[in-house]
Amino acid sequence: MATDKEIPSAENPEKLLNLKSTGAKKWAAGIPAVVAALSDVMEEGIPFRGTRALFAMNQRGGFDCPSCAWPDPDDDRSPVGEYCENGAKALAEEATTKKVTADFFAQNSVADLANLTDFEIGKKGRLTEPMYLPEGGTHYRPISWDDAFTKIAGHLNALESPDEALFYTSGRTSNETSFLYQLFAKEFGTNNMPDCSNMCHETSGFALEPTIGIGKGTVKLNDFYDTDLIVIIGHNPGTNAPRLMSALQKGKENGANIMAINPLPEAGLMGFRNPQEIKGVLGTGGQLADIYLPVKINGDMALLKAFEMLLLEMEKSSPGKVLDNEFIAGNTVGYNDFIEQFKNYKLDELAIASGVPSSDIRQAAEMLANNKRIIFCWGMGLTQQPNGVDMIREIVNICLMKGSIGKPGAGVCPVRGHSNVQGNRTMMINEKPTQKQLDRLKEVFGFEPPRGHGYDVVNAIKAMHKGKAKVFFAMGGNFLSATPDTTYTAEALRKLRLSVHVSIKLNRSHLVHGKEALILPTLSRSDKDIVNGEVQFISTENSMGVVQSSKGILKPVSDQLINETQIVCRMAMATLGSRSVIDWKRYMNSYDDIRDIIEKCIPGFENYNKRVRERNGFYLPNGAREGKFITDKFGDKAPFTVTKLPVNTLADDEYMMASTRTHDQFNTTIYGLEDRYRGIKNERRVVFMNRKDMDKAGYAEGEKVDLFNYDDGVERIARLFVVVPYPIPERNTVTYFPETNVLMSINNVVGESNMPASKFIRIKIKKHQSPV
After folding, report:
1. Dihedral sign, CA of 79, 84, 89, 91?
2. Where are the beta strands (DSSP E) in 274-362?
3. Which CATH architecture has domain 36-187+421-615?
4. In 495-590, which ranges are continuous DSSP H helix?
5. What is the pTM of this model?
6. Which of 212, 333, 666, 680 lies at a C-alpha separation of 20 to 30 Å from 554?
7. Which CATH class for the 655-767 domain?
8. What is the predicted pLDDT for the residue at 39?
9. Residues 466-491 pLDDT 10s
10. CATH superfamily of 203-414
């Protein structure tokens, strides 16, 4: 057992399992996906409970998938199962009947639990009652809900300033809870609302808002079915959004071409065997990508500029046949300045910078030239690059050149991750609320909200480290494992007076904590949410701006669980007491009342309670989808953006590293130890390398190595990894997170959005040496 002096580990244990590498696959889904989806339900010992829930997930009258934010079809939904393999795994994780009780915490110290891997921690089961860790304590112990809220209120009210509190949000939180959560923070007096968007798609919002007038995508799901060309860049749909592959398949069957751009040749970009079709079951699914461009890490900008340069050349040779000059003249500004830059570029140099042969670039550019309706999809392969904002603006430039935005079958599609991360932002979970939003809250509720910007995730960590933030409240998520610079972040969290986590399962963030710590268990998306004797529903917003209802069907594993809205309201009542001007008790007991007040505060939610009960929910307004580009600086015109080409240099012994997730993982939740499509079984501590780099450095397949980063003059080490050869550009490497988050400096961020640049980390690789 752990002693009183042991400090819980902030990282996954440095131990290897038994790696089996079978090589990369060339297609995704099929029967293996069906087997994997059902096996998780069986492994959790819930064949009937789990199967019943699967048939209700993403169905009308059922509950929204707790995994990704990919939209459900507006028309017919599959009666077999409107979910993907990862959705089934997420459901199995939360529908489990395994329990983490007070007895479990009494038998296991915090330090002992920290010696487990994230996978082992997550498999312990559902949290069942509030738990408290006193200062100097080694074991969590039970606490009543009333005492927990009294403890939180005491700490919050003892702060010298409201800005010493941080209120974090994960993307799973419902619209109703998110709205009340930000309302409480503002009435308390702070805009310190870091959220998971600060780590995934903040970059997309920063790029899109000033260029097309809205920080969201512009397409609907049906646009994928009737388009000419779909470009997938910096995204792995086979793992990160498997239901996107069905849309790609349908588009391809209807005549669309597909272009795949990524450093790794992901199976989900190459081929798809739809498990809901006979041909997919028989293993005869079709190829998806018509062309695959193996771009170097951060070579995307050079590739995009090469496309633009070639499009301009082809337009010059065939005026009016390549670009949409009428659209450019009527809907954009800055075109002449934009095209002026290409006098300074040469295709061969751009090809070298991108890592893609010039012949392949020409072939891809011809696809862009010969098609009019183009959809660009991207993921964190772009948003987590230092120049991610500029790269997305470059995508917008291409859309503007082609007139491929604001019309059916064309537009931009950032593929959002967590299931309501977009809804959180719509509900004003934002450390930078607009003055218009704040004015509206003041008008509706009668209090003066704080006007200054709060801390995002990176600045929140720095504030904790400096002692400027003293109370941390997390509405979901696994903050430590999601964030960069693990050692630095852990030091910051341990300086807090109090850390609070609202969670459904145990995770590493509960084990690296403030001087005092609370774990508040809550209902999952699939649980019945019963208020005043009636089963309630909440609402969420998907990647394409559809707001729909979500109603759980499963009996909760404990009668001590309360929903997130009740947690917010009870915290608000305990903290603010009689000085509050908001009727928190009313909202605690009625989601309909919350939706009525949201309707008064946020545009687009007129008749919220009526429309959310309709068959498919409703679409929020999206001017850019209709070709209306209302921007602050340019009125109804979309501006072309002139961006810089990055100069990426590496020392002779350096490599560029990008971190990614496995197929058995969603965000920080580890479902299993198999990355099936990349051929990795029973291991996570691997580093993918080009075979030529291995030979040059003298590394054999399976060799044990340590990884180092030296940003800011600090040595960061991730020990004990296994080298795996992979078809990846030379001098590029890929690893899994959160195991290598320790290598990423807190200062390695994306320009403008201040997101961690998790896909751009310079490392050195050395043969493994055991620490002294």
Report:
1. negative
2. 286-287, 291-293, 332-333
3. 3-Layer(aba) Sandwich (3.40)
4. 564-576, 584-588
5. 0.95
6. 666
7. mainly beta
8. 73
9. 999 999 999 999 999 999 999 999 99
10. Dimethylsulfoxide Reductase, domain 2 (3.40.228.10)
